[in-house]
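Subject: sequence -> C-alpha cells, single chain

Hey, anyone have a minute? Need the predicted structure for the following. Not urgent.
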Amino acid sequence: MKIKKSRCGIATCEVMALGANIYGLYGIHGNVSELTSKNGISKGGNWKTRFADNQIEKDLPFDSINAWTGFRNIARQRLLKVK
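Reply:
Had a minute. Here:
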C-alpha cells in the first residue's frame, strides 16, 4: 500500500515523502523514533509525539513494539582484493 503525503502526521510516511534535511538525509525527525543502544530509549520524535518532543536531545520511552518506533540499519562496506 502506498501512503499518501497527506497522511504524514497521522501515520508513518514513506522515507522520501517529506524531503531531505540540510544534510541530504531523509526521515531523520518526525517519521518514526529510532531505537538506541540504551534499553528502553528511543530518539528523534515521530508522527505521534508533540512537536516539542520531536528533538534528538529528548529521550522517548520505548517499552513495547509499536507503529511509531523503528531502527536504522548502518553498515560499513569493505572492498575485498581479488587475487
